[in-house]
Amino acid sequence: MIPLRFPLNAHFSHYPMVAERRRSGYDKTAMLRFWVLMVVLSFRAFGAAGEATIDAAVQQMYNFNFPASHEILNQCIAAHPQDPLPYAFRAAAYLFYEMDRLGVLESEFLADDTRIIAKKKLQPDPTVRALFYKALDDTASRAEAALRANPNDRSALFSMCISQGVATDYMALIEKHQFSSLSPARRSNNYAQRLLKLDPKYYDAYLTTGFSEYIIGSLPFIIRWFVHFDNVTGSKERGVENVRLVAREGHYFKPFAKILLGIAALRDKRPLEARDLLADLARDYPDNPLFRKELAKVTATIGAAGN
Length: 307
Prior knowledge:
The chain is mostly helical. The chain is built from 15 helices and no strands. Helix 2 packs parallel to helix 4 (84-101) and helix 3 (66-79) packs antiparallel against helix 4 (84-101). It starts with 15 loop residues before the first helix and ends with a helix. Mean pLDDT is 82; it is low at 1-26, 34-49 and 112-117.
């Protein structure tokens, strides 16, 4: 926003007529600047044609402003009710809301395997859970219809990649059904592989394939023997490289890739890398309190280690 400046030597009370003219000019300038600011803010949420955009909804989701994200997604759905993509991001917004509410995204949780695999269930909000699964069903019904008409519909493939991915996270992290969550994980990987065969530069899809590599590589050998994902070898290194690719080139999932890389850095005792990733996230999403909180924690850890 352009700062408003006053002449340092201006004393309006000494010059009533001049003061009045200056106040009038200031009022007009201030109002003009106000309306310019409103237009800029509007363009963040709406495209040139005045329609709400997925980009704006995702921006609000990463800022953890979930009501605003849902409001924009509702407008996207009203404008394009048969498009599966906003329904998929609606499910993602419900997932992020629950993970934030339950503390699942905090570093102490995700960096501690015992907390992730603990059988004690968290307490999901039943209303949000119902809305989450409804959004998954809405995504599937529209994406499957699109894929029947055109098996190479990239938006439909990507929508199913997202919906099955967030289903995996919800089942594994919130409902604590880790083994059962491999089924939607496999489906998400299948859709991602199909999409990447059509378009190897659909970078967001590499988040799914990278996650699949890392998860399969983390399974005990005896379980891995019975679990098969297409084009997945179980290479953790390849998985991390795919996630790094998304952090560089991704669109919707670039921030989420940085979150995953930050968690991996903390787990592998690389706090400097985690700090840099969190600093990027805190800068890009200043309204997200979690990013600032985690950045402060890792910065304090680095400082304590240096003393």
